[in-house]
Amino acid sequence: MNDIEAVAAMKKGDRSAFRYLFNTFYDRLVAYITTYTHDKIQSEDIVQHAFIRFWEEKSKLDETKSPKGYLYTIAYNRYIDTIKRAKKQEKLLSQIWERALLDRIEEDSEALENRIQKMKQIMESLPPKCREIIILNKIQGVKYKDIADQLGISVKTVESQMRIAFTKIREAFKEDYALWFLLFK
């Protein structure tokens, strides 16, 4: 049996003719598609799907021509379909990832705003001298000794007031470890 005879027999539903063509062209088609994919397993999958399509469209075959060109075209088109499908999946995954990041940023912004509001409340609840000292140190960056000189108090009093402030902040944010990292780095 040759290729043309096999095509004629296959058009009539002869499975052995299909098997003959499969055995004749399978390895060559896998090698051909592997030059594009660089992955033998993926190439085998593509070629197997090409042969399924070849069988399904057997009525379209020209009985006067070898099916070689047709098989190569089907296999190549299956490869292109695989690439397009992979790009679609990659784009979809990229969109999902981007959306997840945006959601995370929105969550983080909301959480930050909540922390700021909570910190303002805590600062307002501190005794006036304690609040003044923590603002001078943590917001304006003034050193303990300079605060003591500026306010006419001892460095030990500054340290004591800072300890009071930090104790209240620590109690309010005991579950919020991210804030601890930011405040005390």
Q: Can you tag this structure with a few keywords?
A:
Rna Polymerase Sigma Factor, Chain: A; transcription regulation; rod-shaped; RNA_pol_sigma70_r4_t2; 2 domains; 185 residues; single chain; mainly alpha; Arc Repressor Mutant, subunit A
Word description of this protein:
It is a single chain. The protein is rod-shaped, with a radius of gyration of 37 Å. Helices cover about 80% and strands about 0% of the residues. The chain is mainly alpha-helical and about 180 residues long. The longest helix has about 60 residues, at about 70-125. The chain folds into two domains: about 5-90, Rna Polymerase Sigma Factor, Chain: A, CATH 1.10.1740.10; about 125-185, Arc Repressor Mutant, subunit A (Orthogonal Bundle), CATH 1.10.10. It has helices at about 5-10, 15-35, 40-55, 70-125, 130-140, 145-150, 155-170, 175-185. The termini are far apart.
Summarize the structure.
This protein is mainly alpha-helical and 185 residues long.
Number of strands: 0
Our Rg estimate from Cα atoms comes to 37 Å
The tally of helices reads 8
Class from secondary-structure proportions: mainly alpha
- Describe the global form: rod-shaped
* Oligomer classification: single chain
> What is the succession of H and E elements?
HHHHHHHH
**What is the CA-CA span between the terminal residues?**
82 Å
How many structural domains? 2
Helix share, percent: over 70%
CATH superfamily of the largest domain: RNA polymerase sigma factor, region 2, helix turn helix motif
- According to CATH, the fold-level topology of the largest domain is Rna Polymerase Sigma Factor, Chain: A
Stretches with pLDDT under 50, minimum 5 residues: none
Give the rounded overall mean pLDDT: 86
CATH class of the largest domain: Mainly Alpha
Beta-strand content estimate: under 5%
Instruction: Outline the biggest β-sheet.
Output: none
CATH architecture call of the largest domain: Orthogonal Bundle
Protein name: RNA polymerase sigma-70 factor (ECF subfamily)
Keywords: Sigma factor, Transcription, Transcription regulation
Pfam family, one: Sigma70_r4_2
Family: Belongs to the sigma-70 factor family. ECF subfamily.
